[in-house]
User: Fold this.
Amino acid sequence: MLAPLLSLMRPQLELRISAACQQWASAGDKSLEERMGPPCRALAGPTSRCLVDETERSGRGLGVMSELLAGRFGDDSELVVKRCAGRLLGLPPESFQDVPIRELARRFKAAAPAPAPVP
Assistant:
C-alpha cells in the first residue's frame, strides 16, 4: 500500500545511507571519507531497496512512515533494519530479531578494520 511512497523516498534514503557509511568508515579522516564515496554509494542502492522491500513484507509500512516523518528511529524502523541486515548478510530475515540494535552497531563497528594510516 505504501510501496509507491516509500519508493519515492529512496533517493533521500540512499543519500542518508551513503553519508552515514562515509562517516562511519572514515572515522573522521576527511581524505578517507572522500575516497569512501563511491563504495558507500554502491552499497546505498541495494540497502535502500532492501529497506523498502522489508518495510512492505513486514507490514510495518505505516509505522515506518510515521517514524520517518517524525524524524525518529522507533520499533518499526528497528525491525525493518534488523530484517534487512539479515537479508544483506545472506541470513534469514529473523536472524537479528532478538539482538538489540545498539549491540548490532557495536559489533559491526568493532569488526570493522581500522583505517590505514595516511603517509
